[in-house]
Amino acid sequence: MRVYKVLVVGVCVVLGTSAIDAQRRGRRPRGPEASPVLEAVTALTCVFPASASGSWTNGQPSAAVASPAGATTMRLSEVDAQGGTAIAAGLGETAEVTVRLVGSNLHFLDIRPSGALAVTTVFSEVSHDGRLKAVQSRSEYGGTRGGGTAGPPAVSQHYGDCEIGK
Questions:
Q1: Are strands 105-111 and 95-102 parallel, antiparallel or unpaired?
Q2: How far apart are CA 121 and CA 118, in angstroms?
Q3: Which residues in 60-90 are b (16+ Cβ under 10 Å) and which e?
Q4: Mind listing the pLDDT tens digit for each residue in 119-139?
Q5: Distance CA 69, CA 64 (A)
Q6: Which residues are CB-neighbours of 11 under 8 A, at least 6 positions away?
Q7: Which helix (H) or strand (E) holds 18?
Q8: Among 14, 78, 104, 117, which is least packed by CB within 10 angstroms?
Q9: DSSP state of 81
Q10: Global pTM value
């Protein structure tokens, strides 16, 4: 039994070390097979009609479904999943964003000079009419209120879908 445990631990160490070494050399460990649908995407128009927001009251976190005052629309163009880049429009100024395709998830990472962060994930699952389900998480801190004081962190998550090629 002891030999078996040593053998298992040895195999785990070797496999773990090779994955870490690959990351250090700039290679990513092999993940799930990429979705052919997401791999072919070069442009998306995403609409997020539902959302939730978070806040802290007296140090305690809470979340609430936001009132549907209107859908947020975002356009992603020049999507190059292989090269890891895209152009995002609709969240303030147009900006180049980072793209990562992992299995059935196409992730867009948008970090602004202000510190604002938006992570958009488009799934390979269809919602309706050929549109793909999507979610976007946003967080920001550092805005100012009257008097120059920092406002509270602004956090939200938005739910919707994206049309390919628009």
A1: antiparallel
A2: 10
A3: eeeeeeeeeeeebebbbeebebeeeebebee
A4: 999 999 999 999 999 999 999
A5: 14
A6: none
A7: helix 2-24
A8: 14
A9: T
A10: 0.77
